[in-house]
Write a structure and sequence with these properties.
alpha+beta; seven-stranded mixed beta sheet; five-stranded mixed beta sheet
Length: about 425
């Protein structure tokens, strides 16, 4: 039997809990990474004056306020949270930045690139967007099979259970400003949003189709850009290499389904583990706002619970003056559009009418190191070690030439299932 520690199974010898000393070191390193980010921002915005300010902030963050090793991890988190708040206040009050802050608008707003599906190869997508950490909209990506309508979802998945979410009026306290509503059937959910009233605010959010209604995917083949997802590859038993599928139970998590009415959506958030995110629009219109990794601090992120105080659709530059330093990407998605958002990027969504969409979270060679680091920070050591071991053992690879062939085989398999 595997060893156990605090209810977590030790699946292979590399897994171990972090010591108090390691936790203190990690929190101090996190503060230093924040300083480096502030320093880079300073260099871009205001040259040498802000670099000196950033160095002062670095001394502040990595000095005597670092948590002593005998304190518990909650104390470390509290100290780091206070340090980040102090740094934000310090940066917002700096005279060198006042001309930008006084404008009370985003420093830069950029529409996300659009590229037709037929002209974007796997190699170009991986090189120019994934590896470069650039969002992109891929146009006219086929769904396959019968049109995905609410009637089709009702027919194939009507008896399955779903827990919708609703907007949380207390902003900044829940991930994505969402909270769970009462569980029901898919048929009951669709009836409720069709009737309106209280049902109008319900939103089917990130509902795992393979787990709850695999029949819906009968005619569907995942686009070629995402067929080599490492999370899916680790969802099989590689026990000969010390990796067990129980460590990575993500095989049935994606694609996931989103269904909602006008004005539903999600607040500013970052997807778990800094995985890449993809939204494939089936029907309707969605508006997105995307914030790069380096600019997340400018939206007043609370990294302890994954929430943001700022709203990119209705920015309050009085309450959150550093938003004036942010570079925000914008996008409007319609049926057939597929949006890729690099791992670690913040994003916010508003539905402009009734919508149906699919999403994926995935890991490959372009972001595997970032994901491993994110998992270690959140103390998911078994999962991080399994991912690292899969890379080390050569079980996980991103093969440029094989990806289109794998996609073609899966598309052919979907056609046969019809």
């Amino acid at each position: 039997m595997p060893a156990r520690h605090d209810g977590v199974e030790d699946y292979h010898p590399r897994w171990r809990p972090a010591s108090k000393e390691e936790m203190a070191a990690r929190n101090k390193a996190s503060a230093k990474r924040l300083c480096l980010m502030l320093g880079a921002l300073a260099a871009v915005l205001a040259g040498g004056t802000m670099v000196r300010r950033a160095l002062r902030i670095q001394r502040h963050l990595s000095g005597e306020e670092a948590a002593p090793v005998e304190r518990d991890s909650r104390h470390h988190a509290a100290v780091n949270a206070r340090n980040r708040i102090d740094a934000l206040k310090w940066l917002a009050s700096d005279p060198a930045l006042q001309p930008l802050i006084a404008r009370k608008q985003f420093r830069r707003t950029t529409p996300i690139d659009r590229v037709p599906h037929d002209s974007l190869s796997f190699e170009k997508f991986f090189r120019d967007y994934e590896s470069a950490q650039r969002p992109v909209i891929i146009e006219n990506v086929p769904i396959g099979g019968a049109p995905w309508t609410r009637d089709l979802i009702r027919e194939r998945c009507g008896d399955a259970r779903v827990t919708p979410v609703v907007d949380n009026p207390t902003k900044g306290e829940e991930w994505g400003n969402l909270k769970k509503a009462e569980a029901t059937t898919v048929r009951g959910f669709l009836d409720a949003i069709q009737r309106g009233g209280k049902g109008a605010g319900l939103y089917m959010h990130d509902w795992a189709i393979p787990k709850h209604c695999p029949e819906l995917l009968r005619d569907y083949a995942i686009p070629k850009y995402f067929v080599q997802d490492y999370l899916t590859q680790l969802s099989v038993d590689n026990s000969d290499h010390g990796i067990h599928s129980k460590q990575y139970p993500y095989k049935d998590s994606w694609p996931s389904l989103f269904v909602g009415e006008k004005a539903t959506g999600s607040g500013l958030h970052v997807d778990s583990g800094d995985t890449h995110f993809v939204m494939h629009m089936v029907d309707g219109v969605k508006d997105f706002r995307v914030l790069g990794v380096a600019d997340r601090i400018l939206a007043y992120e609370n990294r302890e619970n994954g929430t943001f105080a700022a709203d990119l659709f209705a920015p309050d530059f009085e309450a959150h003056p550093l938003l004036a330093l942010a570079h925000v990407y914008t996008a409007t998605l319609r049926a057939g559009d597929l949006l890729f958002i690099p791992g670690g990027s913040g994003h916010q969504v508003v539905n402009q009418g009734p919508v149906i969409a699919l999403s994926y979270n995935f890991v490959d060679a372009s972001n595997v190191k970032r994901v491993i680091t994110a998992m270690e920070v959140r103390e998911y050591y078994a999962e991080a070690d399994a991912l690292q071991m899969g890379v080390d053992e050569g079980l996980l690879r991103t093969d440029m030439k094989a990806a289109p062939q794998v996609w073609a085989e899966r598309a052919e398999e979907a056609r046969r299932r019809r």
